[in-house]
Amino acid sequence: MSQILAFDFGLARIGVAVGQSITGTASPLNTLKAIDGKPDWVAVEQLIKQWQPQKVLVGEPLNMDGTEQEITKRARKFANQLHGRFGLAFEMVDERLSSVAARDELFDSGGFKKLKKTQIDSVAAALILESWFACN
Questions:
Q1: Contact 75, 60 (CB under 8 A)
Q2: Which domains are assigned to the chain?
Q3: What is its main location (predicted)?
Q4: Which of 78, 46, 57, 79 minimizes the C-alpha distance to 127?
Q5: How far apart are CA 40 and CA 16, in angstroms?
Q6: What pTM was estimated for this model as a whole?
Q7: Counting Cβ atoms within 10 Å, is residue 66 exposed (0-12), middle (13-18) or buried (19+)?
Q8: Which residues have C-beta within 8 Å of that of residue 115, sequence separation ≥ 6?
Q9: CA–CA separation, 34 and 125 (whole Å)
């Protein structure tokens, strides 16, 4: 069994989820605050130590036609920093529509009061991870 952390990169918030390969399921964790895409690296290190993932996934924000946008480069830079700082294998995962799906899932489970931005980001990270499990 291997643990995997997934990140839904954003400039103000970075959603985080953890999953286990044996069950193919993911659970949202607390969202990390970021300043212009820069996370609190101490908080990231604590997550790495706590979950000891064998791999990290980072959502790759693409336009609907598959082309890159400015944030795509920033997400890749974040993934490279995770690799450089912690020596972890990483993989970029197409995240198109993950935030929309996360909003729908939260709304379905509790209406408008469930739609908190911090929850949306981590649920999106969980959906990214579960989509990766489904393809691997």
A1: yes
A2: 3-135 (3.30.420.140)
A3: cytoplasm
A4: 57
A5: 13
A6: 0.83
A7: exposed
A8: 103, 106, 107
A9: 15
